[in-house]
Specification:
Strand content: 25-35%
Number of domains: 5
Radius of gyration: 38 Å
Shape: elongated
Helix content: 25-40%
Number of strands: 35
CATH superfamily of the largest domain: P-loop containing nucleotide triphosphate hydrolases
Largest sheet: 8 strands, antiparallel
Structural class: alpha+beta
CATH architecture of the largest domain: 3-Layer(aba) Sandwich
CATH class of the largest domain: Alpha Beta
Length: 616
């Protein structure tokens, strides 16, 4: 089923609601005051099935200047505009403002209905048609059908419906495969059900009993029930007028402008960057000017900052802007916004969101090249651009939150490290830096096998995620991670002549001492090497297994330990104490205790109270 939202637009009392009723048989005026006053105050909704595969959802918006805020709440989700001009009044102030709003919201399809054709001569209908053609020239409505109709006699209604069907079949439908989002335009209590919100599902799908998050509050709620166009349903899809029955929340806790979406996926923001057009009829807009901002069904106070630091944006001009919001909103790239002045409250411009990352421009850094690239980017390119700006990349969750893109496929410009995405060029540069750092370590520490892994991370990429660091290490062709150290593939220990001599002296000293181990510092001092190189030689011998470290002060030659194992093996199963061990080995109590603890760890002996049993 193809679901298309048709929104009415036009001046007050030009017959929008009557036209929707004539087309659908549904009275979109739901409030008693609306019926009493004969004008639409809040949003009204109706629907019409066209054939087997097309359903039109009508959003009837107010035309009165005082209710333009309500009009904006409904206009944001429309795919096709039903632009209404009365034949007996032609183009009026709200006709112009609604037209500007539709253009600023990026509406690309529509049909013009010249209503109340039964009240005037056919020649006047033709004259109004010419005025409308002149008014919409060069816009998305230039080639749209302009049909004279009467909601009273039914004249022109079949032609109008046919034109709406044709326009609806040509527009791009909202993406059901995307992440679910529903801007709330109404919240109320229904007896026997509790809290209900309504809105147009602008992307994704929602199922009954699913959980949703109410942005920007962060509250996670359960969907008790769904209605689509007034009928109970198990699922609501993009493009459908949807009512959601929510559990565990009062209607007073929900406001128009909040958004239902998937829990934990997005992040409400307090600022965003975008491109803004100022209407030719507007006064110049000062940098930092306060405005009313409308986005989706939300209306908030905001401040417009000109990113290129110009003092003003001239009428009819276009600029890159940062919008500072007085309260956070769920915003994604591609969303459209409308800007209205504080006084008088009139529409002055609008634009499109490009970036919600909060990118910091350095002094003198060109804004235009980056923003131009963002404006022209496909979803995949947007991901690539944002990743390329981060030295250590971005994780998948952040990318989805910043872009709304669900399917992130690594192309030629991206590499994947666990849940992280890296720019290929930056990844190559980081691998080169890691390799250079290991080279420098080898030069300064020729007797060590390599640099400790975490030491290397701290030197080169301390702020990077561990997955990113591990991935770069494993994919660096010149590096070899070995346990807790990293070395160059080409690295081999090559001892100098004095180091070879010192190594032999150290081995000889410990081998000759047997279990009566010499003091480690004393042995190292006799090598004739400086303290750093002498300690490095000791570490080398420990790694090779020629020496075994029992404690910091107790090091034995491997042959001495092997002899001790043989001695104890001959006494397997025997129970003994510290005094017997001292007699067998000739070591002092100072070294007997740590040596016995080592034997326990190696499971050669097992302690039982104050005694031990030889187990191996």
């Amino acid at each position: 089923m193809r679901n298309i939202i048709v929104g009415t637009a036009g001046h007050i009392d030009h017959g929008k609601t009557s036209l929707v009723r004539a087309l659908t048989g549904i009275d979109a005026d739901r409030l008693a005051e609306e019926k009493r006053r004969g004008i639409t105050i809040d949003l009204g909704f109706a629907h019409l099935q066209v054939g087997k595969d097309l359903r039109l959802g009508f959003v009837d918006v107010p035309g009165h200047e005082k209710f333009v805020r309500n009009m904006l709440a409904g206009a944001a989700g429309i795919d096709v505009v039903l632009f209404v001009v009365a034949a007996d009044e032609s183009i009026k102030p709200q006709t112009r403002e609604h037209f500007d709003i539709c253009r600023m919201l990026g509406v690309r399809a529509g049909v013009v209905a010249i209503t109340r054709a039964d009240l005037v001569d056919p020649e006047l209908v033709d004259l109004v048609r010419l005025e409308v053609e002149e008014f919409v020239a060069g816009s998305f409505l230039e080639s749209a059908p302009k049909i004279g109709v009467s909601s009273v006699t039914g004249a022109g209604l079949p032609e109008l419906l046919s034109a709406l069907e044709a326009a609806s079949r040509n527009v791009v439908a909202k993406p059901s495969a995307g992440r679910f989002r529903l801007p709330v335009d109404r919240a109320f209590t229904m007896r026997g059900f509790g809290s209900v919100v309504t809105g147009t599902t602008i992307s994704g799908t929602l199922r009954r009993e699913a959980q949703v998050e109410l942005y920007p509050t962060g509250r996670v709620l359960r969907v008790r029930g769904l209605q689509v166009y007034g009928e109970a349903s198990d699922v609501a899809r993009a493009g459908e007028r949807t009512a959601v029955n929510l559990a565990d929340i009062e209607p007073g806790d929900i406001e128009r402008g909040m958004v239902l979406s998937e829990p934990g996926v997005f992040r409400a923001v307090s600022a965003f960057d975008g491109q803004m057009d100022l209407l030719p009829t507007a006064k110049p807009l000062k940098n930092g000017a306060p405005v009313h901002l409308h986005m989706g069904s939300a209306a908030v106070e905001a401040e417009v900052r000109l990113l290129e630091k110009a003092p003003t944006l001239e009428a009819g001009g276009r600029a890159w802007v940062r919008i500072i919001l007085r309260q956070p909103l769920l915003v994604l790239p591609g969303d459209r916004f409308i800007v209205r002045m504080f006084s008088p409250v009139v529409t002055i411009g609008g634009g499109e969101v490009m970036d919600i990352s909060g990118f910091r421009y350095r002094n003198g850094e060109g804004v235009a090249p980056r923003m131009t690239a963002l404006a022209a980017a496909t979803p995949a390119q947007l991901v690539e651009l944002l990743v390329a700006e981060r030295e250590y990349g971005l994780d998948k969750a952040s990318l989805i939150a910043l872009t709304g893109v669900s399917d992130i496929s690594p192309g030629a410009k991206l590499e994947v490290a666990g849940d992280w995405y890296l720019d290929t060029e930056r990844a190559s540069g980081l691998r080169a830096r890691l390799t250079e750092a290991v080279k420098e370590f080898h030069k300064a520490n020729s007797l060590l096998p390599g640099v400790p892994r975490q030491d290397l991370k701290g030197r080169v990429m301390q702020a990077a995620a561990q997955d990113v660091f591990d991935y770069l290490l494993s994919s660096a062709k010149d590096l070899v991670p070995e346990g807790e150290v990293v070395r160059l593939k080409t690295h081999r220990l090559a001892l100098k002549q004095d180091e070879e001599k010192a190594r032999a002296a150290i081995v000889g000293a410990f081998e000759a001492a047997g279990l009566s181990t010499p003091a480690v510092p004393e042995v190292l001092r006799t090598t004739g090497l400086d303290a750093v190189r002498a300690k490095s030689l000791l570490q080398l011998l420990l790694r090779e297994g020629q020496l075994v470290k029992i404690t910091d002060d107790l090091v034995l030659h491997a042959t001495a330990l092997a002899g001790l194992r043989n001695t104890l093996s001959a006494k397997r199963g025997e129970r003994f104490g510290v005094s017997e061990f001292k007699e067998w080995t000739g070591v002092s109590r100072k070294y007997a205790i740590p040596l016995l603890e080592y034997l326990d760890r190696e499971r050669i002996t097992r302690r039982e109270g104050d005694a031990r049993i030889i187990t191996a």
